[in-house]
Amino acid sequence: MTRAKPSFIGAVALGLVFTNPIAALAQAPGVADQPSVSEASIEQLLNIEVGTVFGASRYQQKVVDAPASVSIVTHEEIQRFGYRTLADVLRGVRGFYVTNDRNYSYLGVRGFNRPGDYNSRILVLLDGHRLNETIYDSAYIGMDFPMSVDLIERVEIVRGPSSSIYGTSAFFAVVNVVTKRASSLRALRGSVEGGSLGTRAGSATFGHTMASGAEFVLAGTAFASDGISSYTVPGVGIAENMDDELARSFFASASRKNWSVRALYSTRNKGIPTGAFGIVLDDRRSATEDNRGFIEVSYDGTWRGNGLLWRGSYDRYTYNGTYMYDLFEGDEPARRAAYADYAGADWLSSEVMLTRRVAKQHFLTGGIEYREHLRQAQWSGYEAEPRTLDRNDTSRAVAVYAQDEFTISPRLTLNAGVRHDEHSAWNGSTNLRAAVIVKPIANAAVKVLHGSAFRAPNPYELHYYENPVPLVPERIRTTEVVWEQYLEHRVRLSMSGFTYRARDLISQGSPVDPADQFAFGNLDEAHASGVELEAEGSWNGLHMLASYTHQRVHSHPGNAPLSNSPRHLTHARVTGPLLPRWVFFGAEGLYTGDRLTLAGNVAEGAFLGNLTLTSRELSRARISLTIGNLFNRSLVDPGAEEHPGDVIAQQGRTLRARLEWRF
Amino acid sequence: MGNSGSASTLVTYRARLAAALTVLCVAALSTGARSQTATIDEVKAAFLFNFAKFVEWPDGDAGPLQIGVLGNDNVSDSLREIVRGKSVNGRSLASRRVTANDDLASLDLFFVGASEKSRIPDLLKRLDGTSVLTVSDVDKFCHQGGVIALTQEGNHVRFDINLDAAERSKLKVSSKLLALARTVHPVRAAAGDR
Predict the structure, then answer these.
(1) What is d(CA A515, CA A457) in angstroms, rounded to the nearest whole number?
(2) Half-sphere exposure of residue A460, counting CA atoms within 13 Å on the CB side?
(3) What tens digit of pLDDT does each residue of B99-134 get?
(4) Secondary structure, 3-state, A346-380
(5) I need a surface site. Which of A189, B97, B137, B148 has the fewest CB within 10 A?
(6) pLDDT tens-place string over residues B151-186
(7) ipTM given for this complex
(8) Can you tell me the distance from the alpha carbon of A594 to that of A603, in angstroms, rounded to the nearest whole number?
(9) Residues of A in contact with B40 (CB under 8 A)
(10) Strands B156-162 and B183-185
């Protein structure tokens, strides 16, 4: 593979930088503003918020210094707002919206939520470990997310392209889920939950720190729901009891000194009530099963004065779809048959990352990643018939990256990164990200961000059909200006404007024959622009956050608006005491503007209100109550090509109660 | 689908939301709570000052309380501002940057930043048997034999205390500090567990 040469040269260059054993600092840089905490009592200090983010640059840095527009959701907020999935968390984040087709949840970012995209243009990380699988590049954010939200310490949302440090799929955003440490879990906890739609769930988490410093975390969770009893598919019929869901997950970690081992496994089964892909509406055998797991060993320490991170991991993913059809002979249904759709992947990854401070002003990060895809299997076909698709591919990917944070003065920082990815199945891709961060006055930061990203064609797109034209990676270029202002009295304001240009977007269809739908091609280009405003503040124990996004996304050329792309998004949330010291409330209101459906209709803009009440911990127990869709609005999301209904009806009002206790 | 009746509802929705947003912004701007503008390093520096208040050094120590900071200039700059003109238990405070080659045993409080991670075992060995209150934001500092570890949990700074290490250094940690600590090592009476 002669193409790999640039990576090799890059690796050597990186090696030279990081092997110089002069004492260097491995800690994230920062600039001090004027002290405002000097009079604070120690109790007050424990309550002060310090916003830092890891996922933006792969080291802990202040949100103001991150080369991206960043949001953080903490475990306190997850509890206060009764979030039960990552989708719930992300739905409330500025500029994000979630589409649910009653099987999977799809994240929309900056007006992009393309039909049939299983979150492949978002990179989801669990403590830095890539969760997107390697057949469809999909990332799970619903009950299929492979870990209980109880174990989440914080969720970091990094907007914009980050392929310059993460490679493929870090296209629109990176979501890094940081898990709780044993020390913050404090022994054994359990929870049981029950609610509307026959929902019942339970979870247990255990964390222990030994005198030697070794830490252990164990967690298990189970969730079951009957779902909606009858679901009407417009123009097709009614699906009875087809919405059931069953999910389980298990997580374990152990760490000692610099070494950690983590393992997780999750499985989830879901019925299909929407008649997707033209299946028989009322046959309960139609269902999808998704399994995801990994085991990872990592070392986080120092080497010759550099910060050193090494990871090695084995990942596994399987998907089993069963779709029931009535097969016709002439006009008569002759027999009912199950169509099976399978995908399975196993892969090994290893990466090394070094961080180093050079001459006080530079903070360098560099690394090499390698992935060996041992199995990328896909097959499908009717039972007892020859398979229509039967493939097993292997591939490998290697990447090298470097990044520098250059503090020119306390008021001016430059941040630049570059990464080159090579893959055995497609041409390589080089991506850049550059940021100029200016702090013109106290407590204000202006960030000018420019970056590019790619999403590689995945094995599904490469091999499901015979593509007439070989696929190339999708590309995006973005420019964004962010202004963040921190005012006295715990108020933060942020404003940003952005333009995105995405090209070579892969869609189903042939670039040579418009009538041919049995192919994938680099068919589309889209341009987006928009502004976002956000205000956050605290007052008398109330914590409030409100945001508004205005965006326009158009195809290019043609200037036609994209489907499932709301022009307006408004989010607001408040949390605080209801009965001081006894009951807290968390209320959120989410407005998603009008969205075009695939058929060219309008899924009307609608307001979703959620309310959660949480008791304080009473002799080791805590009760919480969540009302979803408080005002019982009828909400719809646009469907994708496989849905016979143009829109998918969402859930009306639901009620959920949860009891949590610690031993 | 799309019809004119819904367009007017939409307008009211938007108007209401815009109003709600405005109210929220104004409310947020006109509030009078504590400042959130602190950076993590300032908060850490303020913690160091507070630790000095709630720890008693063995008798005989007099003169200014000497604080040394290694490996984090932001913490040392902030701390210098914080301790200026202040005193604890009748002792004035002096904070300065130190290097690893300085006489660390002459300090009363020594903060070592996470960037010096690789040197920490060596530094702690040098301070063994002295009455220096050691504090660090490095991972698992208490397990390495340090007295107080600063750590981040969610968006907040927390601290752990190693009582054995404090006793070895003849430092008396106030019960208030122990009660506020996230974890107290060794975890005997579960003193830190709330």
Answers:
(1) 22
(2) 20
(3) 888 999 999 999 999 878 888 889 999 999 899 999
(4) EEEEEEEEEEEEECCCEEEEEEEEEEEEEEEEEEE
(5) B97
(6) 887 678 889 999 999 999 999 999 999 989 988 887
(7) 0.75
(8) 6
(9) 30, 50, 52, 62
(10) parallel
- Tens of pLDDT, residue by residue over A251-274, are 999 999 889 999 999 999 999 999
Give A37 to chain B, closest Cα distance, Å: 6
Closest alpha carbon to A435 in A375, A482, A486: A482
Q: Residue-wise over A448-482: b if at least 16 C-beta within 10 A, else e?
A: ebbbbbbbbbbbbbbbbbebeeebebbbbbbebbb
Q: Please calculate the CA angle A373-A379-A382 and round it to the nearest 5 degrees.
A: 170
Best mutation target among A25, A33, A38, A77 (most B Cβ atoms within 10 Å) is: A38
User: Could you say which of B82, B158, B183 has the minimum Cβ distance to residue A38?
Assistant: B82
Length reported for chain B: 194
Task: Give, as one character, the DSSP assignment of residue A618.
Answer: B
Among A89, A54, A86, residue whose Cα is nearest residue A68: A54
pLDDT by residue (tens digit) across A544-592?
A: 999 999 999 999 888 899 999 999 999 999 999 898 888 999 999 999 9
* Residues in a beta bridge with A391: A378
Closest chain B C-alpha to A396 CA, distance in angstroms: 35
Contact A491 B40 (CB under 8 A): no
- Nearest beta carbon to residue B152 from set A36, A50, A300: A50
Which residue on chain A is closest to B152 by alpha carbon? A50
- Which positions in chain B touch A357 (Cβ < 8 Å)? 115
Pairing of strands B91-97, B65-70: parallel
Residue B24's pLDDT is: 46
Cα nearest neighbour of A45 on chain B:
B43
Give the distance from CA A493 to its chain's centroid. Answer: 24
Identify the DSSP state of B105.
G
Name, in order, each residue with C-beta under 8 angstroms of B85's C-beta and a sequence gap of 6 or more.
Answer: none
Q: Using alpha carbons only, how large is chain B's radius of gyration in Å?
A: 23
Q: Nearest residue of A to residue B32 by CA position? A: A489
Furthest CA-CA distance within chain B: 85
- Per-residue pLDDT averaged across B81-95, rounded? 88
Size of interface A-B (CB pairs under 8 A): 214
User: Which chain A residue lies closest to B138 (C-alpha atoms)?
Assistant: A27
Q: Are A410 and A439 in contact (CB under 8 A)?
A: yes
A604/B32 touch (CB, cutoff 8 Å), yes or no? no
Angle at A378 between CA A377 and CA A379, to 5 degrees: 130
pTM: 0.82
Chain A residues touching B157 at Cβ < 8 A: 45-46, 48, 50
- Angle, helix B40-53 to helix B73-83, in steps of 10 degrees: 50
Bigger pLDDT: A23 vs A188: A188
Residue B15 has pLDDT above 70, yes or no: no
Mean pLDDT of the residues in chain A: 90
Q: Which residues of B touch A42 (CB under 8 A)?
A: 47, 50, 53-54, 176-177, 180
Question: A123: closest CA among A160, A95, A151, A150?
Answer: A160
Residues of A in Cβ contact (< 8 Å) with B160: 183
Taking CA atoms, A417 is separated from A440, A451, B39, in Å, by: 24, 9, 25
Cα-Cα-Cα-Cα dihedral sign, residues A328, A329, A335, A338: negative
Are the beta carbons of A568 and B14 separated by less than 8 Å? yes
Contacts (Cβ under 8 Å, ≥6 apart) of A497: A480, A481, A529, A530, A531, A532
